[in-house]
Amino acid sequence: MFFEKLFAKLPxxxxxxxxxxxxxxxxxxxxxxETEHCQHLAERYQACNDRVNSRSRTTETCVEELFxxxxxxxxxxxxxxxxxxx
Length: 86
Description:
The protein is an all-alpha fold. It has a single domain (23-84), classed as Ubiquinol-cytochrome C reductase hinge domain (Helix Hairpins, Orthogonal Bundle), CATH 1.10.287.20. The chain is built from four helices and no strands. It is elongated. Keywords: Disulfide bond, Electron transport, Membrane, Mitochondrion, Mitochondrion inner membrane, Respiratory chain, Transport.
């Protein structure tokens, strides 16, 4: 009860009507996924997934292909990310 009265007296701050904020890292990741190098690695990852999913018993995983793809995307993003941040 005490806290409800206390918080009722505090001023509220509302954000101005602005466009929704966009994470520059996500924008750069989408752009980097479209590069030829990342597309090639994405195809290798998808081929591995298709191969693994087509078998009922396998010990193969696609971890290496996934890490290669994520590394390439992150490497591409790091070139431009710091200039986009405030």
